């Protein structure tokens, strides 16, 4: 097979999505399945829909267009404020969009009126992570002005946490979002049909048993794809953590010293390298690098260590293995690496179905863990 490549097990992804849809459904929370990490790949989207996801979300209108061209007509939300240069495309292909600027909503209104369509809006609220969002004190006035725009439907409010600053979702900030929904309904008379609490980082809070208030939706990508809780990158009980693997081919394997020699300056990417002298090692190189992945987001197989990376090379200590040229090494990617690898034209994407037997996982705290393959060397 072509390498490097991402091996994506659709059955394991569907299983993870189904388990989370079920668990959150028991709490009255719907799931927006996020397709951006797979660039709007229709096979991935269909796996989510088969798992019970009713709404798809993406931060790029281009990915939503890919879904539409494949025949997927499911409601789709653009999860980033639309660019003014793209409002016509947004109105044509997205059911609704996240917004925090009145100028953008005005442009969406004009585009929707020209297209004889209605476009849904979710207003983003800033709750401390300092990415996008309207300050809470300005929200009611923003709602009042949004309601004046023709062909615009104010569907609700949303927020995003644990992204720029790592602020964790909890009962306090989720309580603020719930109260804001109540205030809008009281002062503006507009029903907040969707109150979207955030992303995969909301799972601990949402399934903790705490009162969810008005929160009735969260957006899930990383938790479904990687089976991990983003707050601490720990496995979510009962989910597969190996649904995706990154496979790269060995192009060199030689005995080399572990210490460089000569005058040491900055590396290609401007950092100052540090080295531990452990004597002579077997250094193997696989054909992948910074241009394709975030090397820090790769977990190698046991007894293989990542030493360094350049644009196109990943150097490994494989002293405990006999590595042959042309053999392949499989890594487990984190979300950052997955995003970069998925967008690289040099990384092939291999979608597979393993027909995993579905094991009921009714509770987030269920300790039954499906047996997934560990990262492997072969």
Walk me through this protein's architecture.
Helix 4 (about 85-95) crosses helix 5 (about 100-115). It is built from ten helices and 18 strands. The strands form three sheets. Strands 1, 12, 13, 14, 15, 16, 17 and 18 form an eight-stranded mixed β-sheet that branches. Strands 8-7-6-5-4-3-2-9 form an eight-stranded parallel β-sheet. It is elongated and about 75 Å long. The chain has helices at about 10-25, 40-50, 60-70, 85-95, 100-115, 140-145, 170-190, 205, 220-225, 335-345; strands at about 5-10, 30-35, 55-60, 75-80, 95-100, 120-125, 150-160, 195, 215-220, 230, 235, 245-255, 280-285, 300, 305-310, 315, 330-335, 350. The chain is an alpha/beta fold. About 25% of the residues lie in helices and about 25% in strands. The chain folds into two domains: about 10-235, Alanine racemase (TIM Barrel, Alpha-Beta Barrel), CATH 3.20.20; about 245-350, no CATH class. Mean pLDDT is about 95; it is low at about 355-370 and about 375-378. Helix 7 links the parallel strand 7 (about 150-160) and strand 8 (about 195).
């Amino acid at each position: 097979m072509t390498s490097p490549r991402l091996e994506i097990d659709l059955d394991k992804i569907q299983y993870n999505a189904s388990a989370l849809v079920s668990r959150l459904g028991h709490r009255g929370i719907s799931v927006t399945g996020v397709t951006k990490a797979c660039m709007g790949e229709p096979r991935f989207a269909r796996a989510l829909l088969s798992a019970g996801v009713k709404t798809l979300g993406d931060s790029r209108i281009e990915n939503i267009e890919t879904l539409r061209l494949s025949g997927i007509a499911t409601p789709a939300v653009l999860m980033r404020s639309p660019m003014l240069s793209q409002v016509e495309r947004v109105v044509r292909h997205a059911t609704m969009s996240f917004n925090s600027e009145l100028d953008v909503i005005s442009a969406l209104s004009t585009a929707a009126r020209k297209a004889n369509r209605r476009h849904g809006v979710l207003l983003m609220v800033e709750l401390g992570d300092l990415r996008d969002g309207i300050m809470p004190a300005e929200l009611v006035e923003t709602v009042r002005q949004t309601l004046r725009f023709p062909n615009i439907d104010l569907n609700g409010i949303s927020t995003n946490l644990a992204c720029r600053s790592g602020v964790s979702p909890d009962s306090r900030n989720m309580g603020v979002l719930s109260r804001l929904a109540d205030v809008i309904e009281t002062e503006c008379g507009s029903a907040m049909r969707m109150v979207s609490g955030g992303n995969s980082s909301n799972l601990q809070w949402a399934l903790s048993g705490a009162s969810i208030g008005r929160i009735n939706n969260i957006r899930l990508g990383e938790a479904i794809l990687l089976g991990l809780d983003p707050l601490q990158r720990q496995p979510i009980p009962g989910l597969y953590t190996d649904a995706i693997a990154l496979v790269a081919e060995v192009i060199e394997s030689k005995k080399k010293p572990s210490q460089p020699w000569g005058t040491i300056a900055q590396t290609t990417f401007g950092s100052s390298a540090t080295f531990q002298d452990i004597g002579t090692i077997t250094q193997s190189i696989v054909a992948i690098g910074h241009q394709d992945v975030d090397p820090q987001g790769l977990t190698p197989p046991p007894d293989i260590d990542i030493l360094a990376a350049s644009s196109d090379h990943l150097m490994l200590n494989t002293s405990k293995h006999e590595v042959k040229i042309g053999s392949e090494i499989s890594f487990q990617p984190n979300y950052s690496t997955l995003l970069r690898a998925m967008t690289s034209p040099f990384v092939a994407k291999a979608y597979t179905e393993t027909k995993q037997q579905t094991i009921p996982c009714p509770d987030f705290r269920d300790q039954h863990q499906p047996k997934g393959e560990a990262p492997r060397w072969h």
